[in-house]
Design brief:
This protein has about 180 residues and is an all-alpha fold. It is built from 7 helices and no strands. It is elongated. It starts with 12 loop residues before the first helix and ends with a helix. InterPro entries: Hemerythrin-like. This is Hemerythrin (Modular protein). Pfam families: Hemerythrin (PF01814).
Length: about 180
């Protein structure tokens, strides 16, 4: 018995992958590339760099702290830029809005930038207590921020932007993992 063309009616590959990504069990999620994957992975990378800077400050190793904090701020800023210049505008265009969740994320980016400035000032004057105090506040804000992005905004972006050619690649190019 031969197979007819009707029996092999296939959806476009992107639509198939988007459907799989939405319904995949957690153990398969790592195998499916979705638009926001580079940003999710970059969150972990930034967390590691932050921990390095904090550990150096706690041990009063200021040269190491300066290096680690410099790498962290560079990576975090590239992350913010990728979202603010690429992901958020694409999502806003797809949704037909400019406020909402992306506005909240931009506001939180601003709050984090302010804490980074406080940490930079404490680093310059080698005040471990102030560095770590601002760092604790930053850590809490980053954790809450990343949770909202990874569990609310990113899934919305992945769903709405599934047909956006090259968006994941543009995000990956914008973030710099050193």
């Amino acid at each position: 018995m031969g197979w007819s063309r009707q029996q092999f009616s296939l959806m476009p590959i992107k639509e198939t992958l988007a459907g799989i990504a939405q319904n995949a069990p957690p153990f398969l999620a790592f195998m499916i590339m979705i638009i926001t994957d580079p940003l999710r992975h970059h969150h972990r990378h930034c967390d590691d760099l932050f921990a390095d800077a904090e550990a150096a400050a706690n041990s009063n190793d200021w040269p190491c702290c300066a290096e680690a904090f410099g790498r962290f701020t560079t990576e975090l800023e590239s992350h913010f830029t990728a979202e603010e210049q690429i992901l958020f505008p694409a999502f806003e265009d797809a949704m037909g809005m400019s406020g909402g969740p992306t506005q909240v994320m931009r506001m939180e980016h601003g709050q984090m930038r302010g804490l980074l400035e406080q940490m930079a000032e404490a680093l310059q004057s080698r005040r471990s207590g102030q560095f770590c105090s601002a760092g604790e506040t930053l850590l809490i804000l980053m954790q809450q921020h990343n949770f909202k992005e990874e569990n609310i905004l990113y899934p919305m972006c992945d769903q709405r932007l599934a047909e956006s050619d090259g968006l994941a690649e543009r995000l990956r190019e914008k973030i710099t993992i050193a």
